[in-house]
Amino acid sequence: MKKVIHKADTRGNADHGWLKSRHTFSFANYHNPERMNFGVLRVLNDDTVSESMGFGTHPHRDMEIVSIPLEGDLKHKDNMGNETIIKAGDIQVMSAGTGVMHSEYNNNPDQPVKFLQIWVIPNKQNVEPRYDQITLNTTDRKNKLQQVLSPNADDAGVWIHQNAWFNMTNLDKDNEVQYNLNDAENNGVYAFILKGDATINGEKLNERDGLGIWDVDTLDIKADSDTEILLMEVPMSLN
Hints:
Blueprint: E1 2-6, E2 12-15, E3 19-23, E4 41-49, E5 54-60, E6 64-71, E7 73-78, E8 83-87, E9 90-95, E10 100-106, E11 113-120, E12 130-135, E13 146-150, E14 158-159, E15 165-171, E16 176-180, E17 187-195, E18 198-200, E19 203-205, E20 210-214, E21 218-223, E22 227-235
Parallel strand pairs: 13-14
Antiparallel strand pairs: 1-20, 2-3, 3-4, 4-11, 5-10, 6-9, 6-11, 7-8, 7-10, 9-12, 13-15, 15-22, 16-21, 17-20, 17-22, 18-19, 18-21
Keywords: Iron, Metal-binding
Domain Pirin N-terminal: 11-120
GO molecular function: metal ion binding
């Protein structure tokens, strides 16, 4: 078993006034050569956007971009004709492929919006761009794992061009779940503690801590307090 721990207060910090962001991996003006990625997981940004503010229209290509709203409403618009709102309980995916233009704004005039922006390096280049979002039944993750992303279009959650699986769980204190990797030979898991405290394979973690773990078949997860966790299983090789 191999592992890397990123404590919450060691993440990169960006404060643009209207945007406050914590970067688990190198991004924009935050560069740490020891934190470039975890396998194909390239970006994990913990963003807070002020009332009615947001990201103007900008381009992406050849990246799988996943957004998970935590609080508030986020307005999305792109050049594929999509104009929609995502909010807590939703998950959004965009395959940038040959190129997309999009904007993201806080749709609330009276409260900030908080969301995770996640980039996964795809296993296919120059694909046709696409957009999808779904609303999840969050009760399905109560003291158990809920799959929210996979490589398969007909599987639970959204899908991306990569051999990756994301799961979320909301655990009451002292409850336990076990995660068995889908591809233990090639993949690792990055666990991100959204709320509360948990112990994963013997490592005690607190809110917004991250644990990357690989060369392992199973994760044993115990809630040390009421906790919410995002598990991201991804290939460790960039090839």
